[in-house]
Design brief:
The protein has 356 residues and is an alpha+beta fold. It has 11 helices and 10 strands. The strands form 3 sheets. A 6-stranded antiparallel β-sheet has the order 1-2-3-4-6-5, covered by helices on one side. It has a two-stranded antiparallel ribbon with strand order 7-10. A two-stranded antiparallel ribbon has the order 8-9. The longest helix is centred in the C-terminal third of the chain and has 28 residues. It is globular, with a radius of gyration of 21 Å. The two termini are 32 Å apart.
Length: 356
């Protein structure tokens, strides 16, 4: 998660496995990037585990390169062309994303598909309590995040050419079926009574009505670049999980921060919000509805959406647990994530109980 956000965590020399012909890259940029002027120097960001991410430096400005990993990849995986497409479409509406300079689908240039976007300079907050911001300013940063996700959900996918960006409708049904199947098929990771209860209950509790909007899929404070000094979002990062889906699922995933233990994912679980100057969860939810121009979300529907998102995240962590057991986990943090699984399940069950 947060492959783009980690890009701003620093750079290193390009890893041997991810090297490419910098001369060919410079030539491509000269043909496709307006105003490009070399010489070009390439560094690799420390993040970007899924899609290698690079900083391209020239005497006048810097750029960011995102590419598919070199070599054979699974069909549909590492779809940098989807990332470029949603960034370009949203950028035309004024939504805060990095400007895409160009997409290349010719493997002969650097060995895999890639796109080049602007390097947005600003701040990323890895801690959801925003410790580097004064108490009096924190509410404004939460207002900025809230307004940004609401603005995304106000965009009509058809109007911006993204009507086919995913399957419209029945988002909850499809997602519950997908993650239930993955959980049930991973026998190595074992079964959990809480997950079994959720799998049985979730399909019966889906809120009435259906909506389809562009959803980010991983909207968190550390996936945003804020202005260097102001409470303003300059760019939303990490669109790898974006698709068409239900906006309340997307918002509830973001709002999970209020219940999320900070050692699992950037969260506010256990924090004294009043002392920190951070709005409460109910206040934040009401602000989203105002900003998105929608009626209030009922307690039952909201509790379902939160339970669904904790279940989805628990299913992902359950898969990580299976990979740890099988010895195929690639991440150094996989064991820690697997050990967090029981707490995620407990949070999902707690939200489920709130619907009854």
């Amino acid at each position: 998660m947060s492959v783009d956000a980690s890009a701003n965590a620093g750079t290193t020399a390009v890893r041997d496995a991810h090297r490419f012909d910098e001369g060919r890259m410079a030539a491509w940029m000269g043909d496709h990037v307006a105003g490009f002027a070399g010489p070009l120097t390439v560094e690799q960001f420390k993040g970007g585990q899924s899609n290698p991410t690079y900083k391209l430096l020239t005497p006048g400005r810097s750029y960011v390169l995102r590419r598919k990993p070199p070599g054979q990849v699974l069909k549909g995986a590492h779809a940098v062309e989807r990332e470029a497409r949603v960034l370009e479409a949203l950028g035309k509406t004024g939504f805060p994303v990095a400007h895409v300079h160009g997409l290349c689908t010719d493997d002969s240039v650097i060995g895999s598909w890639f796109y080049v976007m602007e390097m947005v300079e600003g701040r990323i907050f890895w801690d959801a309590t925003f410790p580097d911001v004064s108490r009096d300013e924190r509410a404004a940063y939460f207002d900025a995040m809230n307004g940004t996700i609401a603005a995304l959900h106000r965009i009509d996918p058809e109007a911006v050419g993204l009507g086919d960006y995913g399957r419209p409708g029945n988002y909850f049904e499809r997602q519950i079926a997908r993650w239930s199947k993955q959980y049930l098929e991973d026998e190595a990771a074992g079964r959990d009574p809480g997950m079994d209860r959720l799998i049985e209950w979730l399909p019966t509790a889906i809120p009435a009505g259906d909506e389809t909007r562009i959803v980010h899929g991983d909207f968190r404070c550390d996936n945003m670049i804020f202005h260097p000094t102001e409470p303003r979002v300059l760019a939303v990062l990490d669109w790898e999980l974006s698709t068409l889906g239900h906006p309340l699922a997307d918002f509830a995933y973001h709002a999970m921060m209020f219940r999320m233990p900070p050692d699992i994912v950037a969260g506010l679980g256990g924090a004294d919000l009043a002392a920190l100057g951070i709005p409460g969860e109910d206040e934040y939810r009401a602000a989203y509805c105002r900003n998105a121009g929608r009626p209030p979300i009922s307690e039952v529907d909201y509790a379902f959406c939160v339970a669904f998102n904790f279940f989805r995240l628990a299913a992902i962590f359950h898969g990580i647990k299976g990979r740890v057991i099988r010895g195929t986990a690639a991440s150094a943090h996989a064991k820690e994530r697997a050990e967090s699984l029981p707490r995620l399940i407990a949070l999902a069950v707690e939200s489920m109980e709130g619907c009854r």
